[in-house]
Specification:
Strand order of the largest sheet: 1-2-5-8-13-16-19-22-25-28-31-34-37-40
Shape: elongated
Distance between the termini: 57 Å
Number of strands: 42
Structural class: alpha/beta
Largest sheet: 14 strands, parallel
Length: 531
Amino acid sequence: MPLLNAGKVLVAVLQALEVSEATYHRWRNPYGGMKKHGSRGTSPPPSHPHCPGAATAVEDGMMKRLGRDHWALRARSMHQPGAGRRGSLSSLFTALALLQLAATPAVAKEFLVKDVHELKLAAKSARPGDHVIMAEGEWRDAKLVFSGQGTKAAPITLRAAAPGKTVMTGASELRLGGENLVVDGLLFQNPAATVSDLIQFRVDSKRLAFNCRLTNCAVISTLQVENSQESRWVNLYGSGHRVDRCTFQGKSGKGSTLVVWLVNTGDGRHQIEQNYFGPREKLGKNGGETIRIGDSKTSMLAGDCVVENNLFERCNGETECISNKSCGNTYRHNTFLEVSGTLTLRHGNDCLVEQNVFLGNKARGTGGVRIIGEDHIVRGNYFEKLTGDDARSALTFMMGIPNSPADRYFQVQRAIVQDNTFVECEHTLLIGLSDDRKATLPPIETVITGNVVVAEKYTVVEARCPLDGITWKQNHFFGKDLGMPPVAGVETDNAMVAPLPPVSRALVGVSWRAKLPASMKVRPRSRRKPP
């Protein structure tokens, strides 16, 4: 008799009823073959919530077998010592029947919905494993609320009938609330300028989402929005979410493309992977980040997010393509292609920037990594043909402000810059950048080790502060000139360079991208071949 395919459950039941496992099998085996008429007194199991009106054949057969065992053991116990344990035996097999029913996989249901009202009703009825399927066509000004309680093994899914053919337009919005929900295959096309928050992983401030997933979806705009209008496309609240294989391109106007909000301790721990973040025009002021994790008020909270295997292409909204504003985040294996901006560790501490590829292709203002704060590691990254200077240099260390407020600049402390490669970058290392007259604290307890620079036409290091707080080890810097006095730990020779492969376009973004209408596709500005 299969019991949840796990002996632990059976053992727990037997222990609770004070029946040994050996005794159970001794009782079970001789009476397991009783004919079906011996199962008198048993009733069919209740209707399954996903199959109204009748139990499944599997459940019915299981209950009949339980009934045979139950009555056989009752008859046997009347003629054996210990007959007073009949109640325990009855309880035993009743409990086992309930356990078997709980273990029987639910038959998933599919709800095809054609409007917001039907979606609301379907979401209320949906159970773990069910799919709510949105009909093809345009859903204009649709205010979607998708809430429910799925499980890790059996989430509740909201998906397009055909990926990319359920099109959200106008003032449409999506709100998620509950646990273990999946949204799959939707296209948000030209969101209206009046939509301040397009997709939110919460229904309201009291009903957040947890362990949910946005996958194979796209937000694509060809509209030019006024700079004063703030709009965010994806807002992650709660914890444990995953955003993967999505496409975001064409955003204009103020507001981050994707924001992680850390409202409470324990929020965060999101996975943002294999997405395509496409072209975004220069905003001309703050508020044009592609990704922001946290904010200055919550910057000392742990974000613990992982951003990996994404492709960022010409995300030129502002200086900070990625704005890190929390602690403990990881950025790895991403590619930044012709991005006029940087991965900026703006606030927060203890972040890892590892094995990312920054390809400038000599495009204007292209940058790398900017370091502010404590205990960051920048390791194994590849920077090539970047042209940015100052805050957009290939690698920038900012000056700190004594007793800095949360929204300004904390001193760089205990940073590790290790095993990175820089090739033909116009401004490779800038140490001591300041945009505040109160910023007087240079980097301290910082180690720069194992890095290779090849910049034959350019100065390698631009030092605007004392370098006493930096330790140099096993670096090979080859350039027009070193830019600082010779120091132990820096060899001025031309070392071997090993480029990192960039993220392939084929491995990021929605799977149905080739099916996008021609008017929605972004045409490259140059004839450079994609990586």
